Amino acid sequence: MLLRKAHFLLAVPAICLAQAPAQSRLVLDATDHDFGKLAPGTAVTHRFKATNGGNAPLTINHLSPSCGCTSTVVGKSFLLPGESTELEVTFNPEGQSGLVHKSVRVESDAAVDPIQTLTFQAEVLPDILPSTTTVRFQDLLRADHRKASVRLSSGTAKGISLSDVDLSEAPWLGVATREEGRDLWVDFELLASRLPKDKLHGDDTVRLHVSNPNPSEVNLTVHWELRAPVLAVPGRIAWAGPAGQDRSMAVRLNSRNRKPFRILSARTSNPLIQVSAPSPKAAPSQAIQVRMLPSAPAGVYEDSVTLTLDTPGRPVFEFRVSAALN
Fold first, then answer.
1. Mean pLDDT value across the chain
2. Which fold has domain 22-124?
3. Which end of the chain lies in a sparser environment, N or C, as judged by fewer CB atoms within 10 Å?
């Protein structure tokens, strides 16, 4: 009688195990990959291993990359228990730069963790790394003769070979190049006396055509800015607060050389901003009132006020007006 009871107790666990439901489980050999340093035109591929670690069939339903720069391929979507496949991820770094982090969402019918995420990163380095893309010549006087240089560093073992220079019509600007090892220097020379008489600032584009494929063209901007004949106090207007209010601020313009001048005209880039009529009399200091109408709706504004002065050459003077209305 005692032997029969022991036999019954041993049989209970076996019955429980037999009734446990079968479950599928997606097991990944890794969830992250580092492609390292890449050139912009070099597509790379990595394969993640995926295994059905459960005891029931599993289906990989979908792979969803986080951006269009990534494509995916599933080697086999239906996996029996213990079977494996590869999830292929291809990254095209064209148009990317610096440290890049991307992800791929893996969706399956697994009973445990049906949604998992694969991540990868890369450092996209172009073949050519300019020390800057904008050269600035500021606070210029008409008699100034300024120079500046930009270094184009090679991001590979190859040197940079220049084939052509395309410069917009800018008789005030000279461009020369010189090689230094694998790098290329671009030397700029600006003659302020040749700058347009009716402008205080401007931008010129210099296109460098090189033999390197990534990129084959390097665009540099030369920004120049003459010293304004007057100083605005404050130099910029900024408002913030609720919409529907009438806002105004006085701006005083002071002649740098204390010579009398007149404001011939004043205009704004936004009809919601108005400028009071300036005094018709010449003086070393002039005052205007800038107003934002209460009808301005909520939003962020970045506008300008442009003044025409009777200083030599009738230069145009501009200052910024910004507002954040809620």
1. 87
2. Immunoglobulin-like (2.60.40)
3. N
CATH 2.60.40.10 for domain 230-325: yes
d(CA 36, CA 80): 35
**What residue type is 170 in one-letter code?**
A
pLDDT band per the 50, 70, 90 thresholds, residue 171 = very high
Alpha-carbon distances, residue 152 vs 130, 162, 177, 180, 187 (angstroms):
4, 11, 10, 10, 11
Burial of 178 (0-12, 13-18, 19+ CB in 10 A): exposed
Q: What is the CA radius of gyration of the chain?
A: 34
CA distance 78 to 176: 63
pLDDT (tens digit per residue) in 55-85: 999 999 999 998 888 888 888 899 999 999 9
* Residue position matching structure tokens 């006085």: 250
pLDDT band at 29, cuts 50/70/90? very high
128-226 and 230-325 in the same fold: yes
Cβ atoms of residues 192 and 150 within 8 Å: no
